[in-house]
Amino acid sequence: MSSRDIDAAFLHACGDAGADAAEDEAVSRLLVSERPAAQLAVLRPSHVFGTFAAAGAFSPAAAALWLREGPPAARRAALVSAAAWGGGCLGLVLGHAA
Question: Who has greater pLDDT, 31 or 90?
Fold first, then answer.
């Protein structure tokens, strides 16, 4: 699997302007440089679940549901990104079983 196989990014989007901009830039450098930006779904579960819940299990669960609800050809893999002020970071890629 390569970065070109990732069709969605689930961002933590903690609400801090600097942290959110850094997360957006990192995802753009990694994923958008590989394809037109319109081909990447960028989702921010914190707007639904809240900041702390989105940094936990809810973002991977939302990504798994996103993968399950679409056709595998259009939803091959999803990146989940989260960071905590204490320095913890999560970078997880979910995809369909081979």
Answer: 31
